[in-house]
Amino acid sequence: MHYISTRGHAERRKFCEILLEGLAPDGGLYVPETYPLVDDAMLDRWRGLSYADLAFEILSLYIDDIPPTDLNAICAKTYTLEVFGNARIAPVRPLETNLHVAELSNGPTLAFKDMAMQLLGNLLEYELARRGEGLNILGATSGDTGSAAEYALRGKKGIRIFMMSPRGRMSAFQTAQMFSLQDDNIQNIAIEGVFDDCQDIVKAVSGDADFKRLHRIGAINSINWARVVAQVVYYFSTYFQVTTQNATQIDFAVPSGNFGNVCAGHVARMMGLPISRLVIATNENDVLDEFFRTGVYRVRGRADTYATSSPSMDISKASNLERFVFDLLGRDASRTNLLFDKQLRERASFDLSGDLAFRQAEARFGFRSGKSTHADRLETIRDMWGRSKALLDPHTADGVKVAREHSVPATPMVVLETALPVKFAGTIREALGREPDRPQRFEGIEYLPKRFKVLPADAQAVKTFIAEIVQGETC
Ligand SMILES: Cc1ncc(COP(=O)(O)O)c(C=O)c1O
Ligand SMILES: N[C@@H](CCOP(=O)(O)O)C(=O)O
Questions:
Q1: Which fold is adopted by the domain 92-109+226-432?
Q2: Which of 195, 232, 396 to mutate to test the pocket of ligand 2 (most atoms within 8 A of CB)?
Q3: ipTM strictly over 0.95?
Q4: Which run of H or of E encompasses 408?
Q5: How far is the CA of 290 from the centre of ligand 1 (A)?
Q6: Stated pTM of the model
Q7: pLDDT tens per residue across span 203-257
Q8: Which residues are tagged catalytic?
Q9: Is the CB of 427 under 6 A from ligand 2?
Q10: Which residue ranges make up each domain of the chain?
């Protein structure tokens, strides 16, 4: 399997090359040259496999430059009861008639990011050891990617992590989870800006080929294809838990921001997993809902990116949308380049409403969308608690709100649970007047000493900081 860039000006690469490279040199995102297809016999064979074995089967379709025995061992080491607290790894539970929730947030940092990040940590460690190299990861987080990455990479040999987050925009729990880590290989950077500023800096630094080569910069956001492909696995695992035979179609509702999670659903659907619809749920930062309803993609600046009570989705420039638009346009790299490089840079928007491909998108790709506000999420949290004592985090509540609007009788709808309520206790208190349960290992983390560096939203300032740390530690 080879990988190509959505912008068409990068060489074809193998999996382990793009694992370390992250962003393609032309500024595009890597995607597989073709999506491997699954058939009925394969689905039958995969039903009943453990999560680790299923992960191995799916990853094997995308990775042919790691020997199968090694890849199998990496999957077995990653997806364990000890790490994910449940033998099923991502169990599905019913919420109400026809509505289920896939529990993706039982890992070390209580968010769905652990599902892919734990694997990525082990893949990076394996590949760097094999090459005898090191890597400096530069990441951007709105609250959950950061801690998932730091927990996955703590103490890993040869890997340093520089994680940027929007200053003052994460919940108290998320802030403490990251900033209380004192490991030498972790640098937290609080950026004076929003998540999109942080992600722009990741792309700007990765786009400086000399700096990237000199300082061995890698990516851990869903820019990195390895993150997306690892997330594909739980769409299959969920499907097998909700159905008994492959003729049944199911729907997914996905709380969305950077479009990584639902992009994995799109990939699973392209592979032939019987998914009928992929329902995108946004918060008040509704660029994705606007795009899927109208065909107009209009990114918003810092001043128009709201600080909401589902803060991890406070994103106005959805990186992975580029992967979907590439497919939507029949994998036309020059058009994708024109839209995502030129037009977004010059006009901060593009318009596909008049394009036949966009008008057929709903039917061909199954996407639907909707939006949830602060009042909606409080109401959904109260309603689910009142009916069945199911406690939802604010992001999952956004997913449930929009799922209910799109649910059709006889098609099971699964909402992906993207975080646990304890990470957003303020909103839970506001909705229910009670505290969410807190795992013992996180008791009192808000009171631990914090270590972080404050920097302006400026790529040069971040480069200077990285260079100082790297040189300081090498001297
Ligand atoms: C809790 C939570 N929900 C939803 C999302 C949105 O997911 P994505 O960015 O993959 O669309 C995120 C961040 O990515 C998140 O941390
Ligand atoms: N919501 C995310 C934003 C980054 O998304 P990613 O999937 O590209 O890493 C976060 O919690 O940081």
A1: Rossmann fold (3.40.50)
A2: 195
A3: yes
A4: none
A5: 18
A6: 0.98
A7: 999 999 999 999 999 999 999 999 999 999 999 999 999 999 999 999 999 999 9
A8: 113
A9: no
A10: 92-109+226-432
